[in-house]
Amino acid sequence: MHHRYDVLVVGAGGAGLMAALYAAKGDVSVACITKLYPTRSHTGAAQGGVGAALGNVAEDHWEWHMFDTIKGGDYLTDQDAAEIFAKDVIEAVYELEHMGLPFSRTEEGKIAQRKFGGHTREFGKAAVERSCYAKDRTGHMILQTLYQQNVKAGTNFYNEFHVTDLIIEEGRCRGVVAYHLASGEIHTFHAKAVILAAGGYGRIFKITSNALTLTGDLMSLYYRKGLPLEDMEFYQFHPTGLAKLGILVTEGIRGEGGILRNESGERFMERYAPTIKDLAPRDIVSRSIITEIREGRGVGRDKDAINLDLTHLPRETIEQKLAEITDLARTYLGLDPIKDLVPIQPTAHYAMGGIPTDINGLCLADGNGTSVEGLYAAGEQACVSLHGANRLGTNSLGDLIVFGRRAGIFAAQYARQAEYAEMPENPERETEEVFSRLRNASGKENSAMIRKELQESMMNNVGIFRNGPDMERQVEIIKELKARAAHVGVSDPSTRYNGELMEALELGFMLDCAEATTASALNRKESRGAHDREDYTERDDVNWLKHTMAYKDLNTPDNVLIGYKDVALKGYTRAFEPKPRVY
Amino acid sequence: MPDYYPPENPAPNVAMVNIKVKILRFNPEKDKKARWETYPVEAQPADRVLDVLNYVKWYVDPALTFRRSCGHGICGSDAMMINGRNRLACKTLLRDVVKDGGTITVEPIRGLKVEKDLLTDMEPFFDAYRAIMPYFINESPPPAGERLQSPELAERMAQSSNCILCACCTTSCPIFWVNGSYLGPAAIVQAHRFIFDSRDQATHQRLNIMNQNTGVWRCRTAYNCTEACPRDIPITQLIEEVKRAVMYQQA
User: CA within 20 to 30 Å of B166's CA: A81, A374, A457, B200, which one?
Assistant: First the structure.
């Protein structure tokens, strides 16, 4: 079946729904396709809040937020993106409120705000209340609110359509190909502009807060065209995932006064970040936790976790403002945070890198500013680059409302003046070939087994701490897993709802993302933000203050070509010079 | 505790239980009617039912079909009937539903057409959702900042806005089973979310929708919805509040 829309959005999480809404306001026809059902995207799992310098609880300024974002990103953040972001996110939060989002409130009736890691007043002097929140289900409320607004706007939704190919020819995006799970049919979507907003790829790691569906599909499809993925080595581990499960425990819990303690009950963050302690940025807290564990001060049977202590907080704070995580701890660990310590460990959480875009969401084809006409990206899928080497807590929700909106506006603007570029003769041919290969493969390999080996090896070799020999080994492991993946067969002959076929496809996408991540990390010989190398422990601004661009070598299998892109070291009105990053 | 483990690599150092999982299977491409299939599984008591289903799909029968995504009770994808009761597979631990040597039964939620195995057609459910005007309406120009709202008035939406649209409530409702035109508990909860929002201006329109014969008066207060809700929303109570608001035409 064939469809045609001015603007097509892939993904129905926060960024996709915001982009669809703004594209619709731009007076063009819009459709949004998602491999899930709307309201089931992973934006819903974000708990703690969205940072914006509203100043509702304590004095705050967008310049402070811009500075925190850049310093948090270990100066790899593009400062023009950070300036636009810190200004726009204020208005965007008010706009969400005008859309009806049920924020928690201050006594005066304003949007309530609380502390979060790395958010400070007066350029690093002390922690500040910047996170606007709706209890501890802020992402859930953003997702619901934006879907509601799309229902109101009459956006066309294609639910449970799994994108299998991205049509880009002669530097222009023409549309996508997708498998409709319910009918088993292959559909083509012809569009003037396409916005990619399909989220991250945390499922390449064993312990992750990410949904089972976050397998980097569109990043991989982009990369397979010989187009670059930016800064893939910067993968954030959230310090507090529920032990063994990786389920997210919001940073808001430390914002409300939660304390990390090692086996002897020591508040160890006092040693690592004396100024802001438990509210240091995520990369620092994650490394501190792993250091405590490595030095034998971990808790639990395997001594591989750290305790999160809330027992000193008022019961109402825990039950009212942190109800979601209280429920998670009770359900999965059988513990009650009101009286029990909650064991946590770092969990793979967020890709700072992704499809490179300019500040309007337009996708970039190299490090020199060449763009892909008609193709936009936003949200975790994209790399603007706002988060640099390490994202601050709450800046993911801010990112998707600010840059989702910009992508929607600029894609619609482009679509209004553009003609449809011709689709190739048989756009679905590649998808049909892949499907037939999977259905006819030997089947001697099992995709779940390969996926598990990928997740475990990525966790061990390209995790929180990395080094050259481990990552060289990982390059070989990925090669071997790719060779084995070629023999994965699909045994279920069904055409409708063939989840086995989709999981086999997703495995290929994950292998690509892992390949680009490992190659980028091995190449960067320094430590910066979330990328911490045991063999190059210092940040090296002379050689490495630049973005990585990883390209699949289309002529040599398994080879990754590395290029670079300059960091924007100035905003429009402000510039923050790189300094050592201490808290 | 991993979210799954292949046969040759069970989780170390944890007492395992041997259970059977009995799943109602249906593939319209080959089955005339649904059939039960039973799979023996070795698992940990703290495993989720979702882990067991993933295990069966990944290592035993790849054709097994169900929805899942987040795995911790926030996306609402994996609503199904477990031991005769609607639950989310990812929020149900084995130790709460089965003992060593026992059997758990897993079936699709009721009242919606089964597409394949545990996967149902969700369109009628979302049609009901869309019918209650599930979006904020306030036509007056917004202020430069936020519209003020007291913490107490904000709290009026705390329970209804907690809904993740998993459909556990609506598909546990006997009225919904026999009368598919009934909007059902989930849609009424969504209406409640806006009816009791002090900033929203479309209260009367929504109360009128609730007053139609597909609306709130179909409810016979069976409490199934409240029991089924995986997020502990007091659904029956919220429906009663909507009924009162319709009676007095004010929220």
Answer: B200
In whole angstroms, what is the distance from residue A396 CA to residue A399 CA?
A: 5
Structure confidence by residue, pLDDT tens digits, A539-573: 999 999 999 999 999 999 999 999 999 999 999 99
**Whole-prediction pTM:** 0.96
Give CA angle at A73 (A68, A75), nearest 5°: 95
Residue B127 neighbours by CB under 8 Å, 6+ apart: none
Q: Cβ contacts (< 8 Å) between A495 and chain B: which residues? A: 29
Find the helix packing angle between A468-485 and A447-461, rounded to 10°.
Answer: 170
Give the DSSP H/E element, type plus range, for residue A221: helix A217-224
Closest CA to B125 of B79, B166, B81, B67: B166
Helix or strand run (H / E) with residue A413: helix A395-417
Inter-chain contact A245–B74, Cβ cutoff 8 Å?
no
In angstroms, the CA A17 to CA A10 distance is 10
Q: Provide the terminal-to-terminal Cα distance of chain B, rounded to the nearest Å.
A: 47
Bridge-based pairing of strands A532-533 and A465-466 is parallel
**Torsional sign, CA A267, A271, A275, A279:** negative
* A-interface mutation test, from B72, B78, B159, most A Cβ less than 10 A away: B72
Q: Are A237 and A246 in contact (CB under 8 A)?
A: no
Q: Where are the alpha helices (DSSP H) in B41-178?
A: 49-55, 94-97, 123-131, 151-155, 174-178
Residues 6+ apart with CB under 8 A from A254: A115, A117, A240, A260, A278, A279
**pLDDT of amino acid A442:** 87
Work out the burial of residue B158: count CB atoms within 10 Å of its CB; fewer than 13 is exposed, 13-18 middle, 19 or more buried. middle
Residues of chain B with pLDDT under 70: 1-13, 251
Beta-strand relationship, A355-356 and A342-351:
unpaired
Tell me the shortest Cα–Cα distance from B135 to chain A, in angstroms.
Answer: 5
Cβ contacts of A428 within 8 Å, gap of 6 or more: A165, A177, A186, A188
**Side chain identity, residue B127:** D
Indicate the length of chain B as a whole number.
251
Interface residue B182 vs chain A (CB under 8 A): no
Judge if ipTM > 0.90: yes
Strand order in the sheet with B35-43: B35-43, B17-25, B103-107, B79-82, B85-88
